[in-house]
Write a structure and sequence with these properties.
248 residues, alpha+beta, 6-stranded antiparallel sheet, 6 strands
């Protein structure tokens, strides 16, 4: 049986009777050329094809509700319904893939390392680290943090020149960044964040974050972090003093 483009278009628009719709669908199932003609006339076909081409091969399973058997099924215009269902399934699969594979939000230590990675020697070379400036900075930082910053301990770090104490924030919690310059003028940082009572204590963990050597630990409701100037920066000397000096 031959079908004109006008008849096929009317079928796509749902403007043929059930008998003719059945005839077209039977013919399409047996004739690839007729199927290609029908798809060429369907303005939604390229959209659905593009959606399915972008669905990952290993998209997670999505449980769809069982079809309601009580709802009558009409053949007229069925490709339109198939297009809508196919597009919905594709969108659900893409959405599920996004939510299951997107990265976890960055924690305070990762954010602090990213911020510190922007520092270069010139960033800290001209900082005013006079006693008067540091007094004001430490007073403000300690008030925000709710504890002493043990300035004497920080000033005693070997090979380190204290440059600044800066008040930052992470998720509404005060985060203090204390900046140093080593003997070559390279920037170092010691960070403290108030995590709150009941926060778990964590042993020292060494890691490379944002291309910088780091050490993190938690104790007494506070989180601590030492950040070097490169991936190979040795931290042990400063770390031993800080973990002792800031022990609860």
């Amino acid at each position: 049986m031959k079908f004109s483009d006008e008849t096929l278009t009317a079928y796509l628009e749902g403007n043929v009777d059930e008998a003719e719709a059945n005839a077209i669908e039977t013919a399409v199932a047996a004739d690839p050329e007729l199927e290609a003609r029908l798809m060429a006339l369907d303005p939604f076909a390229p959209v659905v094809q593009a959606v399915f081409e972008n669905v990952p091969a290993e998209a997670p399973q999505v449980d769809l509700p069982e079809p309601q058997s009580a709802v009558p099924v009409h053949h007229s215009g069925s490709p339109w319904r198939l297009v809508a269902v196919a597009a919905s399934v594709a969108v659900l699969a893409v959405s599920a893939t996004f939510w299951s594979t997107r990265p976890e939000p960055l924690g305070w230590a990762e954010q602090a390392a990213i911020y510190q990675s922007l520092y270069v020697p010139d960033t800290i070379a001209s900082l005013d680290n006079s006693a008067q400036a540091l007094d004001a900075q430490f007073e403000l930082a300690e008030a925000e943090l709710g504890r002493s910053l043990n300035r004497d301990t920080l000033e005693a770090l070997p090979g380190m020149e204290l440059k600044r104490a800066q008040v930052l924030s992470f998720n509404g919690k005060p985060l203090i960044q204390v900046v140093f310059a080593d003997e070559q003028g390279q920037p170092f940082a010691f960070c403290i964040i108030r995590q709150g009572e009941g926060a778990p204590s964590k042993a020292v963990k060494l890691a490379e974050l944002s291309g910088l050597a780091t050490a993190t630990w938690s104790e007494g409701g506070y989180g601590y972090m030492l950040i070097g100037s490169s991936p190979q920066t040795p931290l042990k000397g400063q770390l031993d003093i800080l973990t002792t000096g800031f022990a609860s």
